[in-house]
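Quick note —
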Amino acid sequence: MAEVISPTVARRRVRLALREAREAADLTQLQVAEEMEWSLSKVIRIENGDVSISPNDLRPLLSYLGIKDRAVINGLIADAKVARTRQHVMWWQRPEFRDMTDPLRRFIEFESVAVTIRVYSILYIPGPLQIPEYAAALTGSFDEIPEQRIDVLLQARQLRREALLTRLASVRYSAVLDESVFMRSIGGAEVFAKQLRELHDLAERGLIHLRMLPFSLGVPIANNASFDLLTLSNTDEHNEVLYRENGMTDELIEDRNATAKHLYRFNQLWHVANDENDTIEFLERRIKNLESAVTHGGKT
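Predicted structure written out below.
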């Protein structure tokens, strides 16, 4: 059965093919604009994915860029048609979410259609897996974030969570979390125990694949910050996008070398981390410790 491609993935295929062909031909965006008698902004917006290109515009552009292979041309024309399929306005496109950064908005769009999601986190539970109480305790603790933006981020996180939970049967979600993530009781013992019970339930049912990188790990690992790596298609090679944030800035990266390097690093982390059964057992012990602290007022 042929893979069903979303307009988001189809648009990305076309724009990346056009950008790579232009760069291979050693042409600037301005040269393309002048040859096609378009504005420079139109070329930039097409390559950035802000707008879709029509099949009628695509055909002469492919010829100018030197793409002659009939199968490639037909595939890109088909993708261009899919990319222009009318879609409902998605929640991240609504005016109330205008305070989100452009990289985050684009990341959420890709996340909504990804077939595989890989997450490495060294500080906190990944956003779509956060229960509302944990998310509120975490996000509300940063004084430098305006209250209005906190509300937007919390609502976005909840909508991402709801979307992911409805897709877990069709998307593979794999996360490697540092042991410190499980020890940092954001929101207090009761909230954190509830958060870990949610993770435990999803992992035990096989809906997510969860591994812990323990403090006792005796092998060296690359110095990675947290990141999300999305695979957008099961049939295309090098079809990953990478999202990273550090609390001050965020970025969405599509460079193939960067995404391949992070995929390699994720796989390294996955294989040296505690396996899924051991991670689930650790969660069970940690939850019991937290619940005991709630009951008896002990340390967590």
